[in-house]
Amino acid sequence: MRNTILDANTGEVMRFELLPTTEQYIVGLNGLYYARFENRMTVWEYINGEAQPRNQMNWSRTAFFGFTDTLGVFADGSVWLHFNSEYEDSTLLWLDKRGNMINRARFAYRPTKLAGIDEDFIFYICGNNSNTVECAAVPMGMETPKWTLPLENGTSVAGLALVPERLYVASAEGFFYAIGNP
Prior knowledge:
- The protein is mostly beta strands.
- It has a domain at 59-180: Methylamine Dehydrogenase, Chain H.
- Helix content is 0%, strand content 51%.
- The protein has no helices and 15 strands.
- It has strands at residues 24-27, 33-37, 40-47, 50-58, 68-73, 79-83, 90-95, 101-107, 112-117, 122-128, 133-139, 147-150, 157-163, 166-171, 176-180.
- The strands form four sheets. Strands 1-2-3-4 form a four-stranded antiparallel β-sheet, with no helix packed on it. Strands 5-6-7-8 form a four-stranded antiparallel β-sheet, with no helix packed on it. A four-stranded antiparallel β-sheet has the order 9-10-11-12, with no helix packed on it.
- The two termini are 33 Å apart.
- 27% of the residues are buried.
């Protein structure tokens, strides 16, 4: 069901002949629908059985390079993107609603997982940093993490969970950490 959109009221698959099938679809915190293809994001509505584009943002590919792992849209229409691969450092990138870069945070982690974003818009990310697992918390739009924490055991992240006042980290080697008041 990847990149398939379902009507929340009926559960039926929504068809979008006007939009390429290779796009990545998301719903923003503002309730609007977004479709991303490479360095372009289209905001659209579904009216009378048809996808109607509202506006579009583009951003520069020269400011950064990478494979987008995860992305989201805040209530004000600004966008965040998590770039992640085994071949390059991980990056969190923030764009305004026009596609202009606000800032980016780069981590020497390969690969990484994004645990989530808390109510204060702090992003929690963990990954492999020179054969050890390290986690970081970075506020939205900031280049420097609020904190970083290397973990004693494990070399790669198997899973993460962010819950109120806790960050849970499981390593591929079977170690489990509960980090309080992240």
